[in-house]
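Onboarding guide, step 5: your first structure request.
Type a short instruction followed by the sequence, for example:

Predict the 3D structure of this protein.
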Amino acid sequence: RLLNCLQELDIPPVYYEDILSLKVHPTHTKYTLNMRSQTIMFLNDIEKDPVYAKWPNSVNEFLRPTMFGSLRQIRKNAFNLVFALDPLSIVGVNLLEYVQLFLYHRSPLRIGVLLVPSGCGENSDDTDGMS
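The system replies with structure tokens like these:
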């Protein structure tokens, strides 16, 4: 099946062995976020915050064309971006700077932060918003 896909993509057969030998399964643990969890702190609410009041609130706006790769500015919490970070680490502080940029530029995203101290996650339960 994979070979058929490679043929349909017009990839030369010389590369098949290299592509098939790639490790495509990540070795890190995968998490699922419970978006209803109270531990995720949402920093903005596009539907209620006055800063977004001039944006249209009709879901029909999703059907209008946009520039390729951009999100439509609609007053709905349709797009969520949650940062799971350790606020005491260098990486966590850098991610918080990105959070500030998203909020400053009024990106059409509901921004959330999940604080995960280092050392957590190996045996986490649903109380931290991750499972």
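Each response can be followed by summary notes, for example: Strands lie at 41-42, 80-85, 110-115.
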